[in-house]
Specification:
With about 260 residues, the chain is α/β, with parallel strands linked by helices. The chain has 13 helices and seven strands. Helix content is about 45%, strand content about 15%. It has a seven-stranded mixed beta sheet with strand order 3-4-2-5-1-6-7, sandwiched between helices. A hairpin with a 5-residue loop joins strand 3 and strand 4. The structure holds adenosine-5'-diphosphate (ADP) and magnesium ion. Adenosine-5'-diphosphate binds next to helix 1 and helix 11.
Length: about 260
Amino acid sequence: MLNTPKIVAIVNQKGGVGKTTTAINLGAGLAREGHNVALIDLDPQGNASTGLGIEVARREMNSYDLLIEQTDLADCLQSSEIEGLAIVPATSDLSSADVEMVAMGHRATLLKDVLQPNRIGSLGLDYILIDCPPSLSLLTINAMVSAHSVLVPLQSEFFALEGLSQLMLTIKEVRQSANPNLGIEGVVLTMFDGRNRLAQGVLADARETLGDLVFDTIIPRNVRVSEAPSYAQSVLDYDPASKGSLAYRALAQEFVARDRM
Ligand code: ADP
Ligand code: MG
């Protein structure tokens, strides 16, 4: 039987807002809930690949092959230490992909083409999460064109909401061109420090302007979250009882519950 996984692009053109951290830990949370998850590392920096312990020597097949060579997803996936979570790693090769794609006619639909249901339907995947680079480049456009929805991590700091209007504009353009059904999965506040009044303000502003799009689950700033990748672990495994672990587990549950609504 063919089942088509839900494809979610994790996007914010700003760097350091928690995209990769969310990709790894939401992925781990969904796997923990019993889902089969594939994470596609679409950032040439390869932080998600490193954070899941995929050494460079194990990246011969990677997201460049998937995108540019149109190699089957099945051949590019590597298993991780986490049961139920596999990853297509990224290498710096991907940084040239942006330039190479410009010359290609179907440049914006490369990822969509290789993720067609008939090419991935037999893999038994429930979710594909795409960790995007910190830009609205062709790589990110490819992710948004192939995705069912976009999930936006928003760092709880001043100016956080300002970048959102540019992102919303890009989502609108993608809807008008290659992917009319692109949804917005939601906005998740990351690195939240409840003692900081500025962070409280960002939360209030986000809820006022974005309403239900804001996930109820808020990811707190938690040092265990930032330590976990250097042990090639998700925070769920690194420190299961930490606030960061509990928050990402709650996010995974909310994500699935919303999906069913
Ligand atoms: P992006 O992928 O958007 O560039 P990252 O996920 O790499 O952002 O996060 C940027 C930095 O912030 C990383 O060093 C990461 O470990 C740290 N970080 C992310 N989320 C948290 C959190 N909830 N608490 C503490 N540190 C965090
Ligand atoms: Mg990143």
